[in-house]
Amino acid sequence: MTIRRVTGMQDVMPEDRHYWDFVLERATNLAWRYGFQRVDIPIIEYSELFNRGVGTASDFFVKKEMYSIQEDDGTSITLRPEFTAGLVRAYLENGMASWPQPVKIYSIGPAFRRERPQAGRYRQHSQFNPEILGESDPAADLEIMMLTVNLYRELGYKELTFQLNSTGCPVCKPDYVASLREYLAEYKDDLAEVDRERMRRNPLRVLDSKEAKMDVILAGAPHIINYLCEDCATHFADLRALLDVLGQSYEVNFRLVRGIDYYTKTVFELWDTAIGAQASLVGGGRYDGLAEAIGGPNTPGVGVGIGIERIVLGLRQQDIELPSAPVQAVLVAHTGGDTKHTAVKLTYRLRDAGIGTRLAFARERRSLKSQMREANKRDVQYTIIVGESELENEVAAIRKMTDGQQNDVPLRDVVTWIQSDNV
Description:
The protein has 2 domains: 14-166 and 254-317, Bira Bifunctional Protein, Domain 2 (BirA Bifunctional Protein, domain 2, 2-Layer Sandwich), CATH 3.30.930.10; 330-421, Rossmann fold (3-Layer(aba) Sandwich), CATH 3.40.50.800.
C-alpha cells in the first residue's frame, strides 16, 4: 500500500504557499512597524513547562491533546501545543527581564495538538505569535489587539469586530467560579457529558459550550464583570476607553473564555461578521501569572496566537485577491551538445544577475518545439534559444512570449538586454 501522510497533517503545495508567503510577509512587516523582534524557540520543550504553565484544568489535558515522549533518563518532553509558555520560558532563561521593559517579541512556526482534524485545523498547524512581556498597562493589551485586527485588515478582511471579556485574577476569579459552579449545579442533569466534565475541572469552559440548550441555560448565569476586584475592573474599564479612543468596535461577551488556565484579566476574540456562524478568527489575552507558574518572578504578559492555516482558508473562501505570484522571467532552450554547455553557462549568468531563469532539461536531444511548449506552460516572459546556428554566430535568439517578437542578441549582451527590456 502506498504510504500516505499522517492523519491531521497537511502538505502545503506551491499554490497554497503563495498565500502563506503573502500572510507571513504582512505579519512580519506589521510586527516590525509595531516594534516587535523575532525570537525562535524549540519545537520540543520539557513537558513540565506545559504541565505547570498551561494548567491541569486546560482543554489540552481534558482531551489529552499533547504529543509527549518519555526519554530514557525518565524525563518527558512534549511537542509544543502553543507558543506562549515557551516564549515566557525563553524570556526568563535568556535574561530578557534585564532588557528595557516591556519586551515585545514574536515567533512563527508549527504547533502540535492531537485534536479532531477539521477545516482550517490540523494536528500540525502554524502560528504567528506576538507577545508583550513585562508590562501591565492596558495599552499593551490594546497594542496586541490592534496588531491583530490590522493584520486581518491588511490581508483584505472587511467586517471585523472584537468580542471582549475579563476573566479576573486569582483575587476575584475564585468567587466567580464558585458562583458559576453553584448555578450550573442546578442544571447538572441537563448538561451534556462534556460540560459536566468541564464543570468539575474548569467551570469557565462551560460558558464556551456549543452544546444544544446551553444558550437558554447560560442566559441566567452570573457575569464575571460583577465579581471583578478593583484592579481588574479598572484594567477592563481602561482598555475599553482606549478602544473607544481609536473608534475600534467591540462587544462585551460574558461567555467569552479561553481554554488555557494561564489567562487573567483581558481575553478577546476577533470576529468577522461576514463569515456567519464561524465568526471567530482568532483569540488571545493577558497571562500575568504564567511566569510565576513556571518558576520565574511576577511578569505580566499579553499576546495572541494567530493560525496561518485559518487565515489562508478565509482568504480563499472570501475570494480575496492576492498580488500575482512572481514567475521566473526566462527559459533557456538548447539542442544538446555544445549548445547545452553554452545554455548552462548563460543560465547561471542570468541567475547571478538576479533574473529568475529555468534551464530546459534533456538527457537526450529534445526538439525546440517541445521546449517552446514548456515555456508557454511555465508562463515565462522570454525564451532564450541557443541552437547550432546561434552558437556558430555567438548569439542567442530571445523570443518575447507576449507578442512572439524575436531578436538575435550577442551572447555577451544577453543579461543587459533582458535587464534593459524590463526597465
